[in-house]
Amino acid sequence: MNPYHLPVDDSSPYYNALAQCVDHWGLVPDKTELIRDGVNHVFATERRDGEPVIIRISDDAVRGRDEVLGELIWLEHLIRHGCTVTTPIPSRGGELLETVGVDEGAMHVSCFQRFRGRQLNPATDAEWNDELFRKLGREIGRIHRASDQMQLPADHDRLRWYEINLGQFPDPLPEIFNPQVVESMRVFTDDWIGRSTTSGHYGLVHRDLHAGNFLVEEGRIEVIDFDLGCYGWRTMDLGVLLFVYYFYPSLQVPDASPELAGHVLARLVEGYREEYTLDREQLETVGDMIMLNTVSNYFLMLPNPEHWQIAMGNPQIPVTESLAWIERLWLNGEKLQVDLKQL
């Protein structure tokens, strides 16, 4: 059975939440399948008129209603300003977000148009090339420019990057974590938390922009899944993709290196600068943004590496080895660097 396309399990609270929302969007349960099981549960389904849609269910224990609604308001703004991003669909009651109760607590349910594009495999897909990087850079720049032109309502605002669940240090620290590693990570993270947030360098960012979160169709790119969107350093949206495919052992593309990462960054920057400004001072932070990704990856995956091994498609280099690599980086005081000479 494909772990990415699991049948809906009617024993889960997510199924309960989904069942309660069938009439809100006129969904067809028999055509519903689970396509992502991670921080959120994401289902592909259809409406009764045949329109293909995506249903995303968020646990209130992870993300509160006001924060999720802020994401949907942000997406509507981006669409009005020409960004190609996932499009929310209001329920029959006119709500962008429906909140339902289950035994385990509250679940927030949203519905999106299903883009007809596909995800690329960076290791094998011929479309993973310089032209794609330029187009992706343009879309990121367009998103950042449009985001600077809005202010979310105070009661629906997004959190800062270190306030979101993914940015939290566990307290108390479970025994599975190496205390020396965590202390080094904490010092590094605290330094970035304390830095001044320069205008134009800092604002709303996607925060999770890897190949699983954009779709491609006939050269057109749609950015999806803004769930981790937050206020952060703009170069975070360049660092995630570089970390995942050019440094992280389990998902590295063939011949990955700091030089190849620098080549990809240069093409992203070319596209970005067609839409928005990006100066040398910002680009010199990319290596540190990649290091911040090692921190979030460590805390997210170490508690349950078996789950992430399956979620990543059983990579040849196991997730446990990648986590051990992260620990060695921090124990040895190493910094990941991108070759900036090509910029």
Q: Kindly identify the CATH topology of the largest domain.
A: Aminoglycoside 3'-phosphotransferase, Chain: A, domain 2
* Beginning-to-end CA distance, first to last residue: 44 Å
Arithmetic mean pLDDT: 93
Strand content: 5-15%
User: How many whole angstroms does the radius of gyration measure?
Assistant: 20 Å
The CATH superfamily label of the largest domain reads Aminoglycoside phosphotransferase (APH), C-terminal lobe
Do you know the CATH architecture of the largest domain?
Answer: Alpha-Beta Complex
Strand segment count: 10
The total tally of domains equals 2
CATH class of the largest domain: Alpha Beta
Largest sheet: 6 strands, antiparallel
What is the H/E string?
EHHEEEHEEHHEEEEHHHHHH
Describe this structure in words.
The strands form 3 sheets. A 6-stranded antiparallel sheet has the order 1-2-3-4-6-5. Strands 7-10 form a two-stranded antiparallel ribbon. It starts with 5 loop residues before the first strand and ends in a 12-residue tail after the last helix. The longest helix has 18 residues. A hairpin with a 3-residue loop joins strand 2 and strand 3. It folds into 2 domains: 108 residues, 2-Layer Sandwich (Phosphorylase Kinase, domain 1), CATH 3.30.200.20; 202 residues, Alpha-Beta Complex (Aminoglycoside 3'-phosphotransferase, Chain: A, domain 2). The N terminus is likely disordered. It is built from 11 helices and 10 strands. It is α+β, with helices and mostly antiparallel strands and 343 residues long.
